[in-house]
Amino acid sequence: MKSSTPKPEIQFSTPRELNLECPQFGEADFKYSQAFPDLTRFNGRFYLAFRAAPSHFPSVKSRILIYSSPDAESWQLEHVISDPRDLRDPHFLLFRGRLHIFYMSLTHRLFNHEPEQIYYLSLNSEGWSTPQAISASQAGFWNVKTFRDTVYMSIYTRNGTDQKRTKRHFRFIASNDLEHWETVFDSPLTRERLRSYQTSEASFDFDPQGNIFGTIRSLIYPNLNFLIPAGQPDQWRVRVDRFKCDGPNLFRHNGRTFLVARRSLFYHLSSQPFRFVHHARTTLNVLRYSLSRKRTAIYSFDPADLTIRHITDLPSHGDTGYSAIAPISENQYLLIYYSSDINMGKDFNWIRGQLRQTRLYASTLTVEA
């Protein structure tokens, strides 16, 4: 008799730890903490980049390491980005037949950890070029993609259009040459409307009609899912989700949209930022969130309803959640994510995981046709 159990939307193979040859700089062992990966395919090779540092926290000893592989099994170190600042969040971009990588620097003060500058470098016949700063300063970024020969980037900043320092808010900038950037969509969710709802990482994609949809991470509240209609950048649709998805990474398969992100096992954070004593609620939310346990999770994302639905968790705990994905075949993808040691038999909360070693893991995702 055939089983009536429906086949899962996504299946994943047993994760394997990536054994990478990591360089050492002075006394710092950069195999200690590997995090914030990104992944792409270019000219028949996989390219992997990630942050290597003594811990999750700000450090001038952080580096961005770039590897490549023909088969996603054996990895070769290609380039090291070194700068006496805190470096984070590498993201690849394929644009006009060339491979580029973006990353950002931040202040390294623990309680004033703010974005400073966004940089990019390009792969050429001699190797990787010298990093160049883009025109958007005092801003962090998360996603960068092309659509109709234009590059779009989601950034978050405290700078307002009138040069006043505000709560962190989100906007889109765009470029046709990677050198000159301008704001194309400024989020309506800023200033008084945001109150304590500070936004940061935003993952987005385009549908065939040119509508932009995605999800924005809030620092202490659930995500904001959004849709920007093509040709109507001032008519944003926004929906507050019940999930708080950190480090969101959207990917599409046969017209469906999926999301990989950090999931908290405690997510009962109020979705209403408008409180009489919102600073006290903010502090409570931060403490609850930091002391809760986390997973790297896979969700489905509905651009029509702007809703997120949890599908499954990957083996993970402690400091985890940020992922990278690249296609292998018609219905398979290589997923690389970071986590505290998944074989140690423990389940650290987030803050404890941030103080300890994190490692990179690879799994093959098979998506139902």
Commentary on this structure:
- The protein is mainly beta.
- It has a single domain (10-367), classed as Neuraminidase (6 Propeller), CATH 2.120.10.10.
- Helix content is 5%, strand content 53%.
- It is built from 2 helices and 28 strands.
- Strands 1, 2, 26, 27 and 28 form a 5-stranded antiparallel sheet that branches. Strands 9, 10, 11, 12 and 13 form a 5-stranded antiparallel sheet that branches. A 4-stranded antiparallel sheet has the order 5-6-7-8, with no helix packed on it.
- It is globular.
- The model has no long low-confidence stretch (mean pLDDT 88).
Topology, element by element:
Blueprint: E1 10-12, E2 16-17, E3 24-25, E4 28-29, E5 33-42, E6 45-53, E7 63-69, E8 76-82, E9 86-95, E10 98-106, E11 115-124, E12 127-128, E13 132-137, E14 139-147, E15 150-159, E16 165-175, E17 182-186, E18 199-206, E19 212-218, E20 224-228, E21 237-240, E22 246-253, E23 256-264, H1 278-290, E24 294-302, E25 307-314, E26 323-327, E27 332-340, H2 350-354, E28 358-367
Antiparallel strand pairs: 1-28, 2-28, 3-4, 5-6, 6-7, 7-8, 9-10, 10-11, 11-12, 11-13, 14-15, 15-16, 16-17, 18-19, 19-20, 20-21, 22-23, 23-24, 24-25, 26-27, 27-28
InterPro entries: Glyco_hydro_beta-prop_sf
Spell out the key features of this protein:
369 residues, Neuraminidase, 5% helix, single chain, 2 helices, 5-stranded antiparallel sheet, mainly beta
The shape, in one word, is globular
Specify the number of helices.
Answer: 2
Q: Got a strand count?
A: 28
- Please bin the fraction of helical residues: under 10%
For the terminal residues, how far apart are their CA atoms? Answer: 24 Å
How many distinct domains?
A: 1
- The percent range for strand residues is over 45%
Gyration radius, rounded: 20 Å
The biggest sheet, with number of strands, parallel, antiparallel or mixed sense and barrel status, is: 5 strands, antiparallel
Low-confidence runs: none
Q: Structural class of the secondary elements?
A: mainly beta
Could you please say which CATH topology applies here?
Neuraminidase
Order of helices and strands: EEEEEEEEEEEEEEEEEEEEEEEHEEEEHE
Please state the average pLDDT score. 88
Task: Examine the secondary-structure arrangement and name the CATH architecture.
Answer: 6 Propeller
CATH class: Mainly Beta
InterPro entries: Glyco_hydro_beta-prop_sf (IPR023296)
